[in-house]
Amino acid sequence: MKDMDDSAITRNGNSLILAYDHGTEHGPVDFEPMPKSADPRHVFEVSQHDAVTALALQKGNAEYYRNWQENTGNEGAPLLLKINGNSSLPKREDYYSPKQCSVQYAVEELDADAIGYTMYAGSIHEDEMWKDFREVQEEARKYDVPVVMWSYPRGKGIEENPDYSGQKDPEVVAYGARLGLELGADMVKCKYPGNQEDWERLESQVAELKTVMSGGSKRSDRAFLQDVHDTIEVSGNGLAVGRNIFQREEPGELLDKLEKVIFEGKTVDEAM
Amino acid sequence: MKDMDDSAITRNGNSLILAYDHGTEHGPVDFEPMPKSADPRHVFEVSQHDAVTALALQKGNAEYYRNWQENTGNEGAPLLLKINGNSSLPKREDYYSPKQCSVQYAVEELDADAIGYTMYAGSIHEDEMWKDFREVQEEARKYDVPVVMWSYPRGKGIEENPDYSGQKDPEVVAYGARLGLELGADMVKCKYPGNQEDWERLESQVAELKTVMSGGSKRSDRAFLQDVHDTIEVSGNGLAVGRNIFQREEPGELLDKLEKVIFEGKTVDEAM
Amino acid sequence: MKDMDDSAITRNGNSLILAYDHGTEHGPVDFEPMPKSADPRHVFEVSQHDAVTALALQKGNAEYYRNWQENTGNEGAPLLLKINGNSSLPKREDYYSPKQCSVQYAVEELDADAIGYTMYAGSIHEDEMWKDFREVQEEARKYDVPVVMWSYPRGKGIEENPDYSGQKDPEVVAYGARLGLELGADMVKCKYPGNQEDWERLESQVAELKTVMSGGSKRSDRAFLQDVHDTIEVSGNGLAVGRNIFQREEPGELLDKLEKVIFEGKTVDEAM
Amino acid sequence: MKDMDDSAITRNGNSLILAYDHGTEHGPVDFEPMPKSADPRHVFEVSQHDAVTALALQKGNAEYYRNWQENTGNEGAPLLLKINGNSSLPKREDYYSPKQCSVQYAVEELDADAIGYTMYAGSIHEDEMWKDFREVQEEARKYDVPVVMWSYPRGKGIEENPDYSGQKDPEVVAYGARLGLELGADMVKCKYPGNQEDWERLESQVAELKTVMSGGSKRSDRAFLQDVHDTIEVSGNGLAVGRNIFQREEPGELLDKLEKVIFEGKTVDEAM
Amino acid sequence: MKDMDDSAITRNGNSLILAYDHGTEHGPVDFEPMPKSADPRHVFEVSQHDAVTALALQKGNAEYYRNWQENTGNEGAPLLLKINGNSSLPKREDYYSPKQCSVQYAVEELDADAIGYTMYAGSIHEDEMWKDFREVQEEARKYDVPVVMWSYPRGKGIEENPDYSGQKDPEVVAYGARLGLELGADMVKCKYPGNQEDWERLESQVAELKTVMSGGSKRSDRAFLQDVHDTIEVSGNGLAVGRNIFQREEPGELLDKLEKVIFEGKTVDEAM
User: Fold this and answer.
1) Does the keyword Transmembrane feature in the UniProt annotation (chains A, B, C, D, E) (predicted)?
2) Which of B84, C184, E96, E136 is such that its CA lies 20 to 30 A from the CA of E104?
3) Which domains does chain B have, with CATH numbers?
């Protein structure tokens, strides 16, 4: 575990990751509510808001982002390169996410500020992913870039286990976070289990490891900010968010509020 | 994504790829309508037309092509080396296309101007192909040669998904194109979904990425040119074509017309 | 087999390994009886007792441990880096434990004093684990660090063999220990088969190889110390223990007693 | 495709390959008709006939051959090292032939004049064999030794395809030969489909690639020579033969005749 | 095939290999008839008899053996390092024997005089073992150490083939021996098929390759010596033996007799 407080992707110890891998993971359907969101340049621009401490991209878009920065002179957010990913097109026996970028390429060619890796613990492919992650983590250490684990336990081991209610089962979410600590991640991105108590339980498993909550279902801005605040209050370190930001007509408004909650220690009332 | 406008395989920003991998993919049966088309030298000669910005070959024919150029003194079209491919002989569990040439060999020994790779998203082997492509793409970057993805979603994930009508489903074609962007291709070659509107939808997913439409079913030259023109009109960048050119007695005639439509901004009427 | 008497993880030829990989192997549930045991720093502190000759950690906690030592100035116990491990989340066809750390990283970056590897002989994945272990053992030799094999025969080959009563069958335990000798481990960690005679049988199979007994079921401190003493008496070399130590309010008391039995040749009565 | 006319394994542009891999492929049973043929030295001696332009051996016999040459002072035929092969002992799911020799070893240690590789297109393992062949072909290029492909389409893809009558189906044989061209072989060894017309069809698919016919069923010497002549007449480049030569009491007689037909342009009548 | 007559593991052209891998292959049960045989040091001592030209060990015991030699000053027999092996604990789909030692480690670190490899032709894993053996054989050549193949055809391909009566079928044994020749071994260790005639058949398949017979069922010393003699008489090169030697109270007596039969050309009557 690295000291993330000096990292390019944190600010006052916390993070707001703007994730834009929907074109890989779900395809064009995700951009339908706001067609211009299919154009990466739109999201690159959104990422310039001060609240964004990292823009998470797959390799192709990361190449494009670096070109865009150079061509436009815009600075944009620090680059969090997602090292693996998958499409929703094939029928897999169970969850798996192959590497589509090497750490070497991410750092040497794309000057990534951090590395992201999705771990599907609970899948029959979990052991293979451990091996993939081992390599990724150690190579990232070599280059001294931090590693964010998208820790998403799922698959047959979760679905078919009567002790678990599903991917948001507090026990499952906490076990996933703990694996981030045990395997050597510097930050974990976890599903919000639904209430502060269960997030606190998760925090109890990871000592000083940085945690960010992952999106969640559609709700009002106030309810959303409240969830973010609730995690911060019990040692959470922020948020990873995608469509809820880049598919707004005025993403700046919500980003302003998130900035207050995540980086300035404000309550929801103060932020609204 | 590289700036392809300076590339050896584009002209005025667009491309016409003459593809000749039928002997690999389908075998002798494809040459029956015009037996001399089985001889690569016939196609090498056709490729000399100014309209052809790339000749796509498998390794063995590429070696032969370089010898032919040297022995005859002919210049021929730039070489687009197809890195993977397969025969139609075995019964596969699902679509897969193994590498038959390394990027190193393609560039160092055969001086390839570009690299081609077929991606079968939707196959149960998709994840393995991502890994193969990762390596190919990064090695191509090292040598600074562009990568063209034959992006052909197919296989059980497409066939057994009731939401999709098949390989030409506009959603499927657009998702395939988007994967080219996300994974770091410099150009995608996609099935023509059948009408301009669906091609435009595809274009909306790939920002500035170059796109070429792939052949399609037999129709009149006018109808064919119209399809090509329709894609160009909505940001398409040209065409990949095979038998429809090299199995004509006078391929130069159609190539003349395609040249006007693809590189000179002419309408079909102007080109005919 | 190395001469372990000079090793950092032995004292007077014996060892007491404090194992803390429960967050990997079983998840948060293992920490419930004593919530603060979920915090690695609690266990790091416990490991400072003189009786502890090695603290066994997975990579992430080992990184954390090295930071903790540096930041607090505490010395702590020698580091035994567990090279492989697994979570209990997926449904595996049979037992397997993937590598989550390379020996190179363990030694060069984490300055590990010893390497630990779990071998599941009897699993359908045993042969694959032999290959993994071969590499681990030879790399450890290169760096001159000793290798401890968690030798735990289990899986279908054990469960479905009517000749065996299970994982603690004396024949199974002894065969597992012997594999440690044959494959080149420097110490084996074996399940206590339940009585001194069966441990003696195990010892007869491993010549001078170091052996440590592994935990066992809950029982009184006296009974526990008696088991430890019984193995020592017949050439055993100590103990690997986890929750039975770090989940006590006052672990020092039992550690004091274990120290007498394991390193000072005391009887249980003398130690109590 | 290399210019094979300068190759060590051709003479006047054609080849006669004496193949001796029966001990690998079929075992002792193949030597029963003439027990002394089980002794490689017998075949080494036969290979000294001027008509033999290559002796095809597996690694072990190739090592033995080089020793024999050194010890006896005999020159023998150029060495064509078979890089892969298999035994008939296991029940495979479908045809596959693993590498038993690296190209590096073949060339650096055994000074091979050419490399041989068996390709089973049509097998479910075809794609894996493409990958194996890719490596073999590119390494052979590095050492500048020619590659002969034993192109034998077979397996479930052929047997279960109602369009094909079997391994000697003219379409299948021609497709196999074409794959030799596409994948970068310098010579293909194909089953004789049974008549000159079908061999001509095969030749039409491979441009200038060298071809040799493979053995065939037992028939009179005249009929056999006629088949060889028929292929030569339509651009064939010779023959690969095994037992029909080395299991004769006087192999020299038939070799004399083959020499006339293959290298001297004689008719069968002239050769008899 | 190397000239083995100069090898460290032959004497007068023949070999007596004392094999001690029973702890790996069968576990403690094999040592029950004579408990002290579980201690490798007992066998190390036995190996000092002049008749023993090689002691075959797995890696862990080989490390121990080298230490024992150094510590005791005993010379012992030349070391034949078994590179692969397996335990009898798991249920495998078919026979396989994974590598537990690299050739590099065997030679560079353990100064092995020869390498041993078990080949299970006839298993569905045969092709994989060919690949493993290829690497082993070529690496051994690099270090100039001879390779002994334990050539034991077995598995489904043998059991389910009605033409074969089992592992000792003379045809099967001879095919196995031939594979040793074809794949580049320097000596093969084969099951004794039961009579001299069948061993002679085996010899007819391997030219000058060294052969040693493998143990066989319990019988009188005279009958055992007769079998050994019968193989020697028809070009056999000796014996590999284990428990029949090291589990005797006075192994020297039988070793004296074997010495006469194997290395001094004596008849059984002369040796008794």
Assistant:
1) no
2) E96
3) 6-271 (3.20.20.70)
